[in-house]
Request: fold
Amino acid sequence: MFRILNVRTADDDLKAAAVIREVAMRLFADRGAAVTVREIAAAAGVSAGLVMHHYGSKDGLKDAVDRRAAAFFEEMLGELARIGEQGGSASLAELFAARLEAQPVMVDYVWRLLLDGGNAADALFGKLFATTLEGMRSLVEAGIVRPAQDEQTRTAFLLANDLSLVLLRRQITRLTGTDPLTREGLARWTAVVMDVYTGGIFAPPTGPAGPGTPASDQPAAGEEPCR
Reply:
């Protein structure tokens, strides 16, 4: 009986710690570092003393939330790498959208984390960069993506493009009428991205000369062509 009670107490303790962490993530996402331990405790339905018992301080709780966000992304990016090894393809945004329904507050928290900057934001971006780099290398080896002349800069560009959906989500939604991190919005966004990646955005040169003719070989306005 004593052992059963201890197991139940331990389980309840872990559940309380998880609830506190998830509530803290939501409040940190909404208000940043201004939120207090008392406010977190009240929203979680526990005492401030219990928050301190589990996390030691607000900074300790914030570190736990940051680790939770990092783990979320590492798991997702690990899936991206596995997809590459299996010969498929996916982006950070696609994987993010697939998990958004289950954990919607994660997007807002990452937005706040990257916006506020600091060591936690730098560490998260570094992990995202490293895992994205490995994922792209897997896609190159699978023959899906061509090798890059500047692998580091291309990886940074692709990661910045995906994270822009998080950082500018509200503005994109307002101007396009579609949330880019929903399945519908992502399909619309991806169609445009693929069009730009594969076809470019610049119109082909026009004029009497055929493709590849140097501009210097064309007669100037008012001049007769050389015979």
Summary: The chain has two domains: 9-56, 64-199. The radius of gyration is 25 Å.
